[in-house]
């Protein structure tokens, strides 16, 4: 049986970055507004933590893809560059 925490994390991971970010903004807004019970506040906090982790993982993944693409491009440029001594011969 899957725990409630695992289900919450899975729901956060299923969201796209923009959806998770928008929901996180709403969670923060609700927490800052107050007027919730302690239990509601704790549930919102936990949801916010999961959403923040999901956003961070998506951003880290995007950064890794960007770094890999830049490294691949740099490697292709190095492989395609002529050695100045070879060009002089």
Provide a descriptive summary of the structure in words.
With about 90 residues, the chain is an all-alpha fold. It is about 85% helix and about 0% strand. The chain contains four helices and no strands. Helix 2 (about 15-35) packs antiparallel against helix 3 (about 40-80).
Topology diagram in text:
Elements: H1 4-14, H2 17-33, H3 38-80, H4 84-88
Tell me the structural class: mainly alpha
Please give the largest β-sheet: none
Low-confidence stretches: none
Count of separate DSSP helical elements: 4
Number of strands: 0
- Cα(first) to Cα(last) distance is 72 Å
* Estimated radius of gyration: 23 Å
**Which range does the strand content fall in?**
under 5%
Order of helices and strands: HHHH
> What level of helicity do the residues show?
over 70%
Short description:
This protein is mostly helical and 89 residues long. The chain is 85% helix and 0% strand.
List keywords for this structure.
0% strand; 4 helices; mainly alpha; 89 residues
